[in-house]
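// run 5 | inverse folding | seed 20
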């Protein structure tokens, strides 16, 4: 048992209310805060003599070293050690007033009260003693061990003997504690139940749940005989709460009967308080109670076991708050995951912590870009731009998630998505291209909604590539981002840029096209040399199949075969015929122009069939 008992107590009073109390040791210096000292009120015991800090560093009315106190039996030697201020005090026996200037001192009998600045200091015989539990209160993160640690491995029989309670009463206490542990502190009713249980179980006059806000104790719930509409508002004992907070232990304050004046012997109060801890082990609140000791009715003081019970109630509140915090974080984490992962993947992610570990996977990666976005944003300004991009990205993202994709990132006006990881998806290429078609299908309705506001219609370009990639958390501990890394990603990004050059909204690489079912026809466009990509890449176009498009595909690919064979004149004839039927087909026009250049000798290319695309 921790016992804090001295013959005399020093108190700081604010408007007659005790805001700090501590045993007065042999010597003590009183003054305002120095640099590197904590703010008031506390005793700095790292110096000799110890210093009681009664004012913040900015309060210049009180000197840093203002008063020196020295106990001499039942008398107190008071010395003014301030060169700037005078201390006024009155003899408690004669009523004579003394004015102490720099280095003056006087020895007077106790009790004694004096003022320095706006601070009132009282030194009097101790009337109470604080008794703390042996064990510090356990944070809720390891609350599973708190019962054992709090009761110090003693049996229920020992507790019953110590507190003179029968086993049924003790079990009633424990049931109350278990009920509190199972509750959720999501409203004031929970805290009121805790205060009520504490009052009724321990036969207290009053119980309260308190929380600290901006270094002040605020009442969350109050139960007992005190009326909240009383003209004298109730307040807890700040010295007791300060002791509980600094020691992180439950304490009870017991009157020292032999030091109380005769009129107070018939009725005096016991106090008890226990800390409510955060998961980090800091004090965020307290359970607090008061009991009047009635000598005539033999109403007993608060016992050690009752103090343990209060600590358990406080631990129950702490556990509930920790559970709420954990559940809130879990919900927030799930919401964040659902923004990027389909629902079935989120379930896996929550249950399998190894699911997101980095590994090599075969994936399909999609890049989608809004055409002429800079031009639009410059015209409409930031507010409309943000609303526009949010709406467009929302609709495009739904297409990704509806087809089992992972939203990897948004970079300006570009969306990046992936299939094939973290969950295995054998049809990842097909899922990606289905999502891409759905995204293109959203563009007309989006244009209709925004064309008047942004002043023009808009288009999107989509590039897709498949292959091996390193997948995992490619962000950091500060910001999670699950996605792919490697050449497969670089090619997909570059292919998205190619859509601008070839005039096709949806371009896939041959690596993706080969993974599609035969029911998904594609048109082979050409080979391109991409920036920072060593080998040429064959690109293909996907469209919704129709008889016209299938005829275009067949004639175009025949023209491409002839062009690659070196028969440029025949290629010119075939591409001219294609353009007569499909005048807006930009890939055919691109190949026709190059075939004419090669046939006339106007240009020379080392590899005529490979286009160098100078975009990233």
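// decoded
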């Amino acid at each position: 048992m921790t016992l804090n008992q001295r013959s005399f107590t020093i108190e700081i009073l604010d408007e007659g209310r005790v805001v700090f109390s501590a045993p007065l040791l042999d010597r003590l210096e009183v003054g305002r805060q120095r640099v590197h000292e904590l703010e008031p009120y506390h005793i700095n015991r790292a110096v000799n003599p110890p210093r009681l800090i009664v004012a913040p560093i900015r309060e210049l009315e009180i000197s840093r070293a203002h008063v020196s106190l020295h106990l001499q039996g039942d008398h107190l030697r008071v010395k003014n050690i301030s060169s700037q201020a005078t201390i006024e005090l009155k003899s408690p026996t004669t009523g004579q007033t003394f004015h102490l200037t720099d280095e003056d001192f006087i020895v007077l009998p106790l009790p004694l009260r004096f003022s320095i600045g706006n601070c009132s200091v009282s030194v009097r015989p101790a009337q109470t003693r604080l008794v703390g539990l042996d064990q510090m209160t356990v944070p809720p993160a390891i609350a599973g061990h708190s019962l054992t640690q709090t009761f110090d491995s003693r049996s229920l029989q020992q507790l019953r003997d110590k507190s003179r309670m029968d086993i049924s009463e003790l079990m009633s206490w424990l049931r109350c504690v278990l009920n509190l542990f199972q509750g959720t502190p999501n409203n004031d009713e929970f805290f009121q139940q805790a205060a009520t249980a504490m009052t009724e179980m321990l036969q207290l006059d009053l119980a309260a749940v308190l929380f600290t806000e901006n270094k002040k104790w605020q009442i969350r719930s109050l139960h007992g005989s005190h009326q909240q509409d009383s003209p004298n508002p109730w307040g807890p004992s700040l010295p007791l709460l300060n002791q509980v907070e600094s020691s992180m232990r439950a304490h009870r304050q017991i009157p020292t009967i032999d030091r109380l004046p005769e009129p107070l012997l018939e009725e005096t109060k016991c106090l008890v308080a226990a800390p409510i801890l955060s998961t980090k082990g800091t004090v965020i609140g307290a359970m607090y109670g008061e009991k009047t000791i009635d000598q005539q009715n033999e109403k007993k003081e608060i016992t050690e076991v009752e103090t343990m019970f209060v600590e358990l109630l406080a631990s129950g509140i702490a556990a509930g708050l920790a559970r709420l915090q954990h559940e809130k974080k879990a919900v927030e984490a799930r919401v964040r995951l659902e923004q990027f992962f389909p629902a079935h993947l989120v379930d896996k992610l929550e249950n399998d912590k190894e699911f997101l570990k980095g590994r090599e996977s075969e994936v399909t990666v999609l890049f989608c870009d809004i055409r002429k976005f800079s031009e639009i944003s410059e015209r409409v300004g930031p507010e409309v731009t943000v609303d526009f991009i949010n709406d467009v990205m929302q609709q495009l993202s739904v297409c990704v998630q509806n087809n089992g994709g992972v939203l990897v990132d948004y970079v300006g006006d570009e969306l990046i998505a992936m299939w094939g990881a973290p969950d295995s998806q054998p049809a990842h290429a097909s899922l990606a291209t289905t999502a891409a078609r759905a995204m293109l299908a959203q563009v007309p309705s989006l244009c209709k909604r925004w064309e008047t506001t942004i002043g023009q219609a808009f288009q999107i370009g989509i590039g897709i590539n498949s292959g091996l990639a390193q997948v995992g958390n490619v962000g950091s501990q500060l910001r999670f981002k699950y996605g792919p890394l490697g050449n497969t990603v670089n090619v997909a990004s570059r292919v998205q840029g190619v859509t601008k050059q070839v005039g096709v909204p949806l371009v896939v690489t041959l690596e993706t096209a080969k993974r599609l079912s035969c029911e998904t026809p594609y048109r082979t466009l050409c080979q391109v040399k991409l920036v920072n990509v060593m080998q040429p890449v064959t690109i293909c176009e996907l469209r919704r199949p129709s008889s016209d498009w299938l005829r275009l595909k067949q004639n175009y690919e025949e023209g491409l075969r002839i062009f690659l064979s070196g028969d440029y004149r025949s290629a010119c004839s075939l591409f001219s015929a294609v353009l007569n039927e499909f005048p807006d087909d930009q890939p055919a026009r691109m190949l026709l122009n190059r075939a004419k250049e090669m046939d006339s000798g106007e240009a020379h290319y080392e590899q005529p069939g490979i286009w160098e695309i100078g975009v990233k």
